[in-house]
Amino acid sequence: MIEYIKLMRLNQPTGFFLVFWPCSFGLLLASQYKIPIFFLVLFFIGSIIMRGAGCVVNDIIDRDIDKHVLRTKNRPIANGRISAFKAAAFCVFLSFIGFLILISLPTKAIYIGIFSVILIITYPFMKRITNYPQAFLAVTFNIGAVIGYFSIKSDMNYSLFLLYIACILWTLGYDTIYGHQDKKYDKKIGIKSTSITFENNTKRVLLFFYSGMFLCLLSIGFLENAEIFFYIFVALSYMQLLWQVISLDTDSPEDCLQKFKSNIYLGALVFCAFLFI
C-alpha cells in the first residue's frame, strides 16, 4: 500500500494543493459572496484523485528516464517495486473515481473535464519535443479553474479568462523553479524545460510571469468590483511571489524545492482574496 501512496504522491501534498487552488478560485469567482462548501470538498477530493492519476501516467511514460535522475530514481515504477501493468490498472481505478466525481457536475463542466484527460495523457511527452513543456503543463494543470467556474455558472466572462491566464502564469513560474532541481540530469539525457531554456535569465522571466499574474488578478478585482480586502490579499500574494524571485538560488535543489512548496501558501492567500470578490 505504501508504494501506491508514493505512486500517487500522497506523501507530497504540494502537488494536489496546486491542482486544487485554481479550482477553488474558479468556484469562488462564480459564487461571489457565497462559499460553495460542497463543491470545494468535491473538487479537493477530485484534485487528489486526478493529480494521483496524472502522476501514475507520467511515471509510466517516464520510467526509463526517472532511473537516471537522482530525485526520481526511487519512484515505485522506476525502481521496479510496482510494474507498469499494475500501475496502469491502478490508474484506471483512480480515473474511474475521478469520472464518478466529474459526472456529478453540470454538462459543460463535464465536457471540459473530459477534454482535460487528453491534456493529462499528452503532457509527459512534451518534455521530449518542446523547450517549453511547462507551458503545456500550465494549460493542463489550471483547467480546473474553468471546470470549477462552469460548475456554478454557465456563462463565460472576461474575469474567468483573466483568472485562467493568471493561473497559467503562476504555474509557468513555480514549475520553472521546480525544474531547476533536475537541470543537471535533464541536460545529460536530453530532456527539455523552461528551467534550461531560461537558465541564465530565470529571475527576469519569473518576475515577468508573476507580475503578469498580479496584473490579471488586479484586473479581475476591478471588473468584479471587489472589496478592499481582495486587493490586500492580492498585494500580499505578490509580495510572497517577489520573495520567491529575489531569494531564489537556482543552483540549490533544496532551495528550489522550498520555493516551489511555498506556493501552497501563495494559493491560500489568493483563495482568501477571492472570498471578497
Q: Could you characterize the architecture of this molecule?
A:
- By secondary structure, the chain is mainly α.
- It has one domain (2-274): UbiA prenyltransferase (Tetracycline Repressor, domain 2).
- The protein is built from 15 helices and no strands.
- It has helices at residues 2-8, 14-31, 37-61, 63-66, 84-102, 107-129, 133-141, 143-152, 158-179, 183-189, 194-197, 202-223, 228-247, 253-261, 263-274.
- The chain is globular, with a radius of gyration of 18 Å.
Radius of gyration: 18 Å
Named at the architecture level, the CATH assignment is: Orthogonal Bundle
| Beta-strand residue percentage | under 5%
How do the SSEs run, as a string of H and E? HHHHHHHHHHHHHHH
Cα separation of the termini: 42 Å
CATH topology: Tetracycline Repressor, domain 2
What level of helicity do the residues show?
A: over 70%
Number of strands: 0
CATH class group: Mainly Alpha
Mean pLDDT: 94
**Biggest sheet record:** none
